[in-house]
Design goal:
By secondary structure, this protein is an alpha+beta fold. The chain is built from 18 helices and 21 strands. The strands form 5 sheets. Strands 12, 13, 14, 15, 16, 17, 18 and 19 form an 8-stranded antiparallel sheet that branches. Strands 5-6-10-8-9 form a 5-stranded antiparallel sheet.
Length: 479
């Protein structure tokens, strides 16, 4: 059903006219950064509240009118998680962009959901403190990062965003507002609703504020790059690091054929050329002496594991160049990408999974560029339309759609076999929804549906993500 005249009138009153209805302006709100245009659905309207009170009133209005509502941050997701439901609206958090409180004494910062990661890092640096998670795009909003439990390269040492969220302000489907957690560390007071909301992809509540715990700033950072003869050999060096008691900030593996795509895009050079794959390792510590000791120990481990060389740099400029090349891998591969996977397996299974992907390439005659976080099990493989050769893609393969489906099914099957999960940091959204049942048991899915039904009985919050709309809304009309 189209939005009622009552809804339009009340929505415009609540947000004082900040309701978008022009079809051309609505289009960008109908998708996220999923590579193909297969998940697009322009909303009926976009509403832009400027505070938590307006947000709660809009949610309450949608509840009373049974209007599907999808909360949206910066739209940087890769799983079609913020694509609005047909005949639904988008609640954009772009104007919820205020820093509410900085508290060095408690080492916390509280911000509205629409604050970008870039602004967050700047504010935290002013406090001479440190927020370790770095999921990637600094234009992403912190509310979206919490809703997806974003990860990034530093998760091996510091964990995902979940580890740093001390408090949330959340608007429920009813329009009621919950204040969850606070500036304290411990709580055994009732169910942990914070953890329930983190990673829920906007299906259980609308996150409006986030309180984050912060750490002291690190005194020294060094980056090591070590080339190996093969990706498997590079990944095989990781367990030896942990055996020596070394806990790096980040450990990334990447094949040099993939690196060349980013080199072409940026017109910059990876610091090593030997071998076919590299490990990029970031270590941090209290001071230079601390990181020097770690670097020396790591160099020995890498040499013993077969590294062809070990480059160590503590130059901030050189570290930034290396990190930029690694960070731009997705953008470099994006023009040919059909879908990027973000599976996660136990660390001991990474090498086996990568070998499986390489075997899949040979069997199907396709390229599946693969790289990832070697120390936390999070592997990114790309389905691509053409063959990758020396940093460039050939013409589209005639059967790329069929082979992409086969690649996806095979990768997910291998992940489940290795006791992993089909999403480590991007979320389920529309892109992975149909595959969730192969990863979770019927009882597990039943428990998730019960939670969704209890907190959102009419299924108005981000319908169709994780579960089908019909399941969420109990077969009711309206979406």
């Amino acid at each position: 059903m189209p939005l009622s005249a009552t809804w339009w009138r009340k929505a415009r009153e609540i947000v004082e006219g900040r309701v978008v209805s022009d079809p051309e302006t609505l289009k960008p709100y109908g998708r996220d950064e999923f590579p193909l245009n297969v998940y697009e659905s322009a909303p009926e309207a976009v509403v832009k509240p400027i505070d938590e009170n307006e947000t709660a009133q809009i949610v309450r209005l949608c509840s009373s009118e049974n209007v599907p509502l999808t909360v949206r941050g910066a739209g940087t997701g890769l799983a079609a998680g913020c694509v609005p439901s047909p005949r639904g609206i988008v609640l954009s958090t772009e104007l919820l962009n205020k820093v509410i409180d900085t508290d060095p004494a408690n080492r916390t910062i509280t911000v509205q959901a629409g604050v970008t990661l870039r602004k967050l890092y700047e504010e935290v640096e002013k406090m001479s403190l440190y927020f370790p998670p770095h999921p990637g795009d600094e234009g992403a909003f912190i509310g979206g990062a919490a809703a997806a439990n974003a990860g990034g390269a530093r998760a091996v040492k510091y964990g995902t965003v979940r580890r740093f969220v001390l408090g949330l302000q959340v608007v429920l489907a009813s329009g009621d507002t919950l204040e969850l957690g606070g500036k304290f560390i411990k709580s055994s007071t009732g169910y942990d609703l914070i953890d329930l909301m983190i990673g829920s992809e906007g299906t259980l509540g609308v996150i409006t504020r986030v309180t984050l715990g912060l750490l002291p700033q690190v005194g020294s950072v060094q980056t090591l790059v070590a080339p190996f003869r093969s990706v498997e050999q590079a990944i095989g060096a990781v367990p030896a690091m942990f055996a020596r008691g070394i806990l790096p900030c980040a450990v990334e593996f990447v094949g040099h054929s993939v690196i060349r795509c980013a080199e072409r895009l940026l017109n910059k050079s990876w610091p090593v050329a030997d071998g076919t794959a590299s490990l990029m390792i970031i270590i941090d510590g209290r001071n230079q002496e601390d990181t020097d000791a770690q670097a020396e120990a790591l160099g020995g481990v890498l040499d013993s594991a077969g590294a062809l060389d070990v480059l160590i740099t503590d130059s901030r400029q050189r570290q930034a160049e290396i990190l930029e090349i690694r960070s731009m891998l997705y953008e470099a591969l994006r023009p040919a990408t059909v879908e990027m996977f973000d599976i996660c397996v136990p660390r001991s299974e990474i090498a086996g999974h990568v070998l499986f992907v390489q075997g899949l390439e040979e069997r199907l005659g396709v390229s599946i560029p693969t790289y990832g976080h070697a120390a936390d099990g999070n592997v990114h493989s790309h389905c691509v339309r053409g063959l990758l050769l020396d940093g460039a893609f050939g013409p589209d393969l005639p059967d790329w759609r069929e082979s992409s489906r086969e690649v996806r099914d095979a990768i997910y099957q291998d992940v489940v076999k290795r006791k992993g999960v089909i999403s480590g940091e991007h979320g389920i959204g529309l892109a992975k929804k149909e595959h969730l049942a192969r990863n979770l048991s019927p009882a597990h899915l039943g428990a998730l549906r019960s939670i969704k039904s209890a907190l959102d009985p009419n299924g108005i919050l981000n319908p169709g993500k994780i579960f089908d709309i019909e399941e969420e809304r109990g077969g009711k009309n309206g979406a």
